[in-house]
Specification:
Elements: H1 2-27, E1 37-43, E2 46-50, E3 66-69, E4 72-79, E5 86-88, E6 95-98, E7 102-106, E8 112-115, E9 121-122, E10 128-129, E11 136-137, E12 148-151, E13 156-160, E14 168-172, E15 175-177, E16 185-188, E17 191-193, E18 202-204, E19 214-217, E20 219-221, H2 227-262
Antiparallel strand pairs: 1-4, 2-3, 5-20, 6-19, 7-8, 7-11, 7-15, 9-10, 12-13, 13-14, 15-18, 16-17
């Protein structure tokens, strides 16, 4: 009974964290480039009263044993690497990645961040930057008198200027991909950082032989959050929490009966 209290409490704690994760997914359902997370659980240690395979007699062994689990705990939050829907914005500086890959962003501390959110602007130097002013890498500068900006699916950025009949190439977008994108460290503002778990980035041109996705101009990738699925997961988390709370109540009632017998 004492184990039941702590075991059920571990389930309640795990479902609280599960609900926190669901809340974050729902809160970012309108965040461009957001990739939802799914909480994974692992079971805790087992109390082994009889080990499986233990000797029953000199000639026989125990087939199944007697083991009682001691609860659960959150193991990790898995980043779901599915493509979000692409929506047309009409803004020539909005880019979406169709397929795997991340845009590279130079952060204020000198680190390189990675993002799927492709909403860019130009700063006072004409350089493409994020909404927070962090420049795209490699740097691409749009001339202030450019009348038209065109980005090909291979990342080629061209502009048309007054008096010119042909477009001029001003840069090439490069994307990065990882052997294990689930190992990236999310630091907010749609930015991920590379870790030893993610591996080093493989950098290349969009649509190249490295398997990187293509760039779609005038579009943004929406969050890959399915609101209906998240509501279903929320109901399941509530029911699981409720079930564990009933185990706590049942254990408490049994302990109360024991106390009454001792009186």
């Amino acid at each position: 009974m004492f184990h039941a209290l702590y075991t059920a409490a571990s389930g309640m704690t795990a479902q609280q964290l599960n609900l926190d994760n669901i809340a974050n997914n729902l809160a970012n359902s309108s965040t461009s480039g957001f990739q939802k997370r799914r909480l994974q659980f692992t079971d805790l240690l087992y109390q082994s009263d009889v080990m499986p395979g233990a000797a029953a007699t000199q000639q026989t062994t125990v087939a199944a044993g007697l083991q009682i689990g001691l609860g659960t705990r959150p193991g990790n939050t898995e980043i779901v690497q599915t493509q979000g829907d692409l929506s047309s914005t009409g803004n020539p500086l909005d880019f979406a990645i169709q397929g795997p890959g991340f845009f590279q962003i130079l952060l204020p501390n000198g680190q390189t961040g990675y993002t799927r959110a492709g909403s860019f602007q130009t700063d006072n130097q004409g350089q493409l930057v994020t909404a927070n002013g962090n420049p795209l890498q490699p740097a691409i500068t749009i001339p202030p008198d450019a009348t038209n900006v065109t980005v090909g699916s291979d990342g080629t950025v061209s502009v048309t200027q007054p008096g010119q009949t042909q477009a001029t190439q001003v840069g090439v977008l490069q994307l990065a991909m990882f052997a294990n994108p689930g190992g990236l460290n999310a630091v907010g503002n749609n930015i991920y950082l590379a870790t030893t778990a993610s591996g080093d980035p493989v950098i290349g041109a969009p649509g190249g032989s490295d398997g990187l996705g293509t760039v779609q101009q005038g579009m943004l990738e929406q969050a890959n959050v399915n609101v209906v699925d998240e509501f279903v997961q929320m109901i399941l988390a509530q029911r699981s929490y409720e079930s564990n709370s009933r185990v706590v109540k049942a254990s408490d009632e049994m302990l109360q009966q024991l106390n009454q017998l001792a009186q």
